[in-house]
Amino acid sequence: MISTFTRITLSFLLFTVVYAEQHTVRFENHCGSGTPTLIQGANTLSTGQDYTSNGTFSSAIAYLQTGACGFNGENCSLVEMTLGNSHCVGCGSSVDISLIPPHAFNVETSFSFIDGCDGSGATCATKDCKTAFFKFDDNQVQVACQTDNVGLLITFCGSKASSSTQVSAASTAKHVSTAVNSRTPSSTTNAASISHSASSALVTSTPTPPKCNRKHRRSVSDSRRRHHARTGHGGLF
Ligand SMILES: *[C@@H]1O[C@H](CO)[C@@H](O)[C@H](O)[C@H]1NC(C)=O
Ligand SMILES: *[C@@H]1O[C@H](CO)[C@@H](O)[C@H](O)[C@H]1NC(C)=O
User: Fold this and answer.
1) Selecting from 2.40.30.110, 3.40.190.10, 2.60.110.10, 2.40.50.140, what CATH number does the domain 20-161+217-231 have?
2) Is the distance from the beta carbon of residue 53 to the nearest atom of ligand 1 less than 6 Å?
């Protein structure tokens, strides 16, 4: 006999398990060598295996360690990601590829949302690809997804990401610059990537309800792009 109390408890647990926010990052490496690496702050969370976060997964980076990459992906193509549920319109997940120095192209790098927004993503196959950040206001290369619990597939040397669907979201979320401080304090060379990727944290940490409008836009041209806020993104072809 299962008591009512037990049943209620079980239902609650089931509810919690089913509805807890989580995001999975998966790697596919078709390069034949190198080690997929997922870093958040000072922690290496994956060297190829799936990683699933409990809750929002903010300001993480990934790259293929081909031997020449620094801990924070210096000298290598960098995927920057924040995966989070949409607690407000325009909030949610945002991912991009960065080649802003000290990052530099090393291998073809792609990402694609999974478990939601499938097929939306980007591929940077060459050092002059149009789908990566080269400077901080290249916000159009960001790809967002507003689906809860989305995951991310990161592929090296073989694109899984089809041309991105325009999942555009322009929000007025403020750049939470303090998030920058949460990144690896030990590295001085990655200041650019730190502030760059840390800005993605803003989408989930904005205290005031952002007045997000989700008009489809190809670029963010307002002043906020100076702060490269994670707001705009557009077509990647
Ligand atoms: C998430 O929670 C599950 C279940 O409690 C646990 O097994 C897993 O290790 C957690 N993952 C992380 C990244 O903390
Ligand atoms: C990046 O490459 C340059 C030139 O090969 C090298 O001097 C530098 O140490 C590398 N940086 C890191 C962080 O590995």
Assistant:
1) 2.60.110.10
2) yes
CA–CA separation, 161 vs 112, rounded Å? 5
pTM (two decimals)? 0.66
Please indicate whether residue 54, judged by its CB atom, sits closer than 6 Å to ligand 1. Answer: yes
- Residue 59: what are its φ and ψ, rounded to 5°? 50, 50
Which ligand has an atom closest to residue 69 CA? 2
Q: Report the C-alpha gap between 28 and 8 in whole angstroms.
A: 41
Pick from 54, 57, 149 the residue to mutate for probing ligand 1's pocket: most ligand atoms within 8 Å of its CB. Answer: 54
User: Tokens representing 7?
Assistant: 């049943």
Which atom of ligand 1 lies nearest, measured to the CA of 22? Answer: 1
Q: How far is the CA of 6 from the centre of ligand 1 (A)?
A: 24
Q: Is the CB of 56 under 6 A from ligand 1?
A: no
Q: Which ligand is nearest to the CA of 13?
A: 1
Q: Say if residue 232's pLDDT is above 60.
A: no
Domain ranges in the chain? 20-161+217-231
Q: Using omega within 30 degrees of 0 as the cis cutoff, is the peptide bond preceding 101 cis?
A: no
pLDDT one-digit tens code per residue, 98-142: 999 999 999 999 999 999 999 899 999 999 999 999 888 888 889
With a 6 Å cutoff on the Cβ, whether 142 touches ligand 1 is no
Q: Which atom of ligand 1 is nearest to the CA of 52?
A: 13
DSSP per-residue letters across 132-170: EESSTT-GGG-EEE-STT-EEEEEESS--PPSPP----B
Q: Largest alpha-carbon pair distance within the chain?
A: 66
Please name every residue paired with 144 in a beta bridge, in sequence order, or none if there are none: 94
For residue 83, give the amino acid letter.
L
